[in-house]
TrEMBL record:
Organism expressing this protein natively: Virgibacillus dokdonensis
Protein name: Competence protein
Xref: Gene3D superfamilies: 3.40.50.2020
InterPro entries tied to this protein: ComF/GntX_DNA_util-trans (IPR051910), PRTase-like (IPR029057), PRTase_dom (IPR000836)
SUPFAM superfamilies in the record: PRTase-like
Length: 225
């Protein structure tokens, strides 16, 4: 096997455990050490590093006239330089297999989050526009959702094709809701996406779901920017 990140050979570890429960490694130990998950105090609402319980952004969201449509976000990794390189290669250079680097850790952190979350949730990935889907060849959020051991529902549809990453925070806040629901969903939802930046994309999706009868929406994201 070769590491999906640095492409160096992975030397198999031979122990009684690996003999009884063989598991193919997709990343070498050196690269794995650079993938450090969020540790220490975090905002209980959005996973930003914070010692105050809720960060200022989440306090602001609570004070908005329509109130916060997203009950909570849990992210696995911070947006380090190393993570940025991986995301760029994975999303924008079409390296689909690279997403499997996150599979094991994504599942581990999901189980940590789900301890305080009802198991009745359905995973709904944030969709790409048709243009972006064709350009990249896959939806990274849908790939992450497939890693989770709960039902999936691709009920959201993106109307516009603009990239949120190129917008300022103020522009994102003023943007029209780019989502619509193809089919109503009366179960609580876990929205799945790769990066939480301002949270606007996830809140727009959550608002559509709540308006159509969904009782509660939280999100599970790979990275907290």
């Amino acid at each position: 096997m070769t590491c999906l990140l640095c492409e160096k050979n992975i030397l198999p570890e031979v122990t009684w455990r690996t003999m009884l429960y063989p598991e193919a490694k997709v990343i070498c130990d050196a690269c794995n050490e650079l993938l450090v998950a969020i540790d220490g105090p975090r905002c209980t609402r959005c996973s930003r590093s914070s010692t105050k319980g809720n960060c200022l952004d989440c306090i602001h969201w609570e004070k908005t006239p329509s109130k916060d449509s997203l009950a909570r976000n849990y992210s696995v990794y911070p947006y380090s330089n190393f993570m940025q390189e991986i995301i760029t290669k994975w999303k924008y250079q079409g390296d689909y297999e690279l997403g499997n680097v996150f599979k094991k850790t994504f599942r581990i952190h999901f189980k940590r989050m789900i301890k305080t979350t009802s198991k009745a949730y359905v995973a709904v990935p944030i969709p790409l526009s048709e243009e972006r889907q064709e350009e990249r060849g896959f939806n990274q959020a849908a790939m992450l959702a497939e890693f989770l051991p709960i039902p999936k529902a691709n009920y959201l549809e993106r109307i516009g094709s603009e990239k949120q990453a190129k917008k300022s925070k103020e522009e994102r806040m003023k943007s029209a809701n780019p989502f619509r629901l193809k089919k109503s969903l009366n179960k609580p939802v876990i929205l799945v996406d790769d990066i939480y930046t301002t949270g606007m994309t996830l809140r727009n999706a959550a608002r559509v779901l709540l308006e159509q009868g969904c009782p509660n929406v939280i999100s599970f994201t790979l990275v907290r920017s």
